[in-house]
Amino acid sequence: MSFKTKFGVAAALALSVSATAVCAEEMKIAFIDPLSGPFASTGSNGLHQFEFAADKLVNEKGGILGGTTFKVDGFDNKASPQESLIQLQVAIDQGYKVIVQGNSSGVAHALTDAIEKHNKRNPDSRVLFLNYAAVDPALTNDDCNFWHFRFDANADIKMDVLTDVIKDNQDIKKVYIIGQDYSFGKAVSAAANSMLKEKRPDIEVVGDELHPIGKVKDFTPYARKIVSSGADAVITGNWGADMLGLGKALVANGFSGPVYTYYAAGSGITAAFGEAGKGVIRLVAEGQLNPPPNDQVVEYYKAYKAKYPDGNIDQPRIYNTIGFLSAAIEKAGTADDVVSIGKAMEGMEWDSIFGTKLMMRAEDHQVIQNMHVLVHTNEGVTFDYDNSGFGTVTESTIDMAGMDSPTTCKMDRP
Amino acid sequence: MDLVVINLIDGLVTGLLLFLLSSGLTLIFSMMGVLNFAHASFYMLGAYFAYQISLYVGFWPGLIIAPVLVGVLGALVERYGLRRVHQYGHVPELIFTFGLALLIEEIVQFFWGKNIVPFEEPAALQFALFNIGGNAVPAYKVFMIFVAIAIFLGLLYVLTKTRVGMIIQAALSYPKTVEALGHNVPLIFMGVFGVGTALAGVAGVIAGPVLGTFPGMAFLLGSIVFVTIVIGGLGSLFGALVASLLIGWLTTFAATYNFEFASILTAFGMERPEDLSESYLRDLWVLTLPQIGPILPYLLMVLILVVRPYGLFGKRDA
Questions:
Q1: How far apart are CA A107 and CA A83, in angstroms?
Q2: CATH number, domain with residue A321
Q3: E strands within A230-380?
Q4: CA angle centred on B294, ends B288 and B295, rounded to 5°
Q5: Are the CB atoms for B215 and B108 separated by under 8 Å?
Q6: What is the spatial distance between Cα B260 and Cα A228, in angstroms, rounded to a whole number?
Q7: What is the CATH number of the domain that holds B109?
Q8: Which residue of B has its CA nearest to A268?
Q9: Percentage of residues in chain B having pLDDT higher than 90
Q10: Confidence check: pLDDT of A104 > 90
Q11: Residue A356 lies in a domain
């Protein structure tokens, strides 16, 4: 009898302990991106921004749902899809609920595929995939699934914004398109070709090519080719060392027209461009820094600089990802059930401090937000990148870009 | 035509840069019989040292100081690392240099971070020296050419015309005899290793501002340097020069001309199928020369190994 009572008390105690443990638990987020190799800088800066956003938005406010905190851990995928799948398995085995990844759509394809299969086979350990930068349109079209959410505008939306700007620039008669040889580079090229044809049929595409990703040592020959083609503007989706190499070679070899890019800022790239890239390099991006849209941005940026004096907030979408996720968890009322969190995110609207509203389109899980075309300069820069005095200043804004862009996504919901 | 001339110049720059790296590597190999996997890491160290020095005293002192520092570091690595490992044979030596390459990359990331550092050309050389058909040739590139050629001539002179060079050459072939004649062969080895790595350092200093100074720079160039010395013939300085220039021009021209492989297929009388996804040759139909440019040196290496296993100017089997 007494034994039974004791057992009952112990069981009750254990239950109550585990109940409090549930309340004050941790939401573990696995960051799977390159932390070594040629793209290490892009990856490690992203990780810092994730950790900082998690601390500022969730942990320092005492967590969400009465004490759930966010913990972001880096998993080095060496920019390889195979390695990413290994790291994904490790993360799932260690109880991570959310996977974030952004660098390389090739990796994103591998992950979204693996996560869909895993979630189907293992309903007990399902994970969400928050993609903060892999912009191949296919991820929210033919290859979409319920578990994948994209917080960056996809390549088509970005190209839509860029071509809107190019459309109004009558000086541009010839355009050269160059990109890295993989799914994203091909998507950029396809979008640029079709949209230019539609918006400015008089523009001639004088070159359209792909180069091996992360393998080109010297971009001089490419720059030569572009200059001698007589192009007035260049469009490229290059990132990391490939972006820097291409941009520097273009400027050094006498190209002076606008270079429209997706990822030519931060991670040392802005500092390395310096004076040479002034007024030449333009990028399409979300989130406005210069001029700062409000005081919250100023405060957030200064706090980040205090923690990482050598870092930049070059990806406001990382802030958005963490903010949106925490809002969705609050809305769903659970940090355990990723299906409810996923459903809460569908169609949800959330206001970012970076001067835009975010709307997660339910039919394809593509976020819709204000997009900007920024110019690399040192004039009117409140927050520079890489402590270089140079930064990106907003030139034009498209509100809720790609709001009614079509999608071919047909997803099965759990 | 303009483009051909400009490509010859660009290819020359790439080739000479590669030569600065491969000359040191091939000298070290012919002397010690060990492939130094960390050679490109010394190139990276050169760039980072020069960047750090340029923050205080500008680019020019860095051009001298950084390679000297790298050379001293290389000599120390030989004296206190490689020489101890040497007695256990070649495999431990290979593993040692391999580990050293990884270590140097981590150290560089530790001190300078993973970002690209803003290492710039000196202001005095930031202008276009001349134009060929709208293509600017930066003064800095011409400067690179002169530095590389000066070093090649200097090296050639030392190796063939001086007493030191004679002893080095003798130590290459008959180390035991040279030692018996009273020369300090281990010291010569250390010197050659130091000079070899210093040359890599020079390459790093002058390439850093153009190709970007970041922790992945050694990895990008590492494998191509080995290809160069295999093509040129292991241990041959002249071979290293020829192979470097060959690879420089090969990659430059391949990247510039959008030659489509589809035109070969049509020349064979084949027709481009409407639906490429069904075709067995779909990759060939859409392939262009710039896409395969970076693998051409490796292709050349395989060909050379098949036809002349000891390389273009090598004297013994690789």
A1: 9
A2: 3.40.50.2300
A3: 233-236, 259-261, 281-286, 349-352, 356-360, 367-368, 371-377
A4: 90
A5: yes
A6: 19
A7: 1.10.3470
A8: B116
A9: 39
A10: no
A11: yes
Residue A387 forms part of a structural domain: yes
Q: Smallest CA–CA separation between B159 and chain A, in Å?
A: 31
Please tell me the distance in Å from A363's CA to the nearest CA on chain B. 29
Q: Where are the beta strands (DSSP E) in chain B?
A: 128-132, 135-138
Tracing tokens 């050309």 back to the chain, one arrives at B121
Q: Which residue has the tokens 């001339």?
A: B5
Question: Are A248 and B288 in contact (CB < 8 Å)?
Answer: no
DSSP 8-state class, residue A216: -
pLDDT of residue A4: 53
Show the domain range for A236. Answer: 156-292+370-398
User: In chain B, positions 118-147, which contact chain A (CB-CB < 8 Å)?
Assistant: 118, 120, 128, 131, 133-136, 138, 140
Residue type, B55: L
Tens of pLDDT along B294-306? 889 999 999 999 9
Indicate the pLDDT class of residue A349, thresholds 50, 70 and 90: very high
Is the Cβ pair B113, A310 closer than 8 Å?
Answer: yes
- CB–CB contact B114 A227 (8 Å): no
Report how far residue A61's alpha carbon sits from residue A70's, in angstroms, rounded to the nearest whole number: 11
Name the token pair of A265.
């800022």
Strands of B15-142 (E only): list them.
128-132, 135-138
Asked whether the ipTM of the predicted complex exceeds the cut of 0.90, the reply is: no
Q: Do B138 and A252 touch (CB under 8 A)?
A: yes
Same domain, A90 and A217: no
Same domain, A24 and A137: yes
Convert the pLDDT of each residue in A192-235 to its tens digit.
Answer: 999 999 888 898 999 888 888 877 878 888 988 888 888 999 99
Which of A41, A217, A274 faces B214 most closely, judged by CB atoms? A41
Do residue A37 and residue B252 have CB atoms under 8 angstroms apart?
Answer: no
Q: How confident is the model at residue A317 (pLDDT cuts 50, 70, 90)?
A: very high
**A245 CB within 8 Å of a chain B CB:** yes
Higher pLDDT, B74 or B86: B74
Place of tokens 């001349």: B130
The answer to whether the CB of B287 falls within 8 A of the CB of B259 is: no
Residues 6 or more apart in contact with residue A207 via CB below 8 angstroms? A176, A177, A178, A225, A226, A229, A231, B258
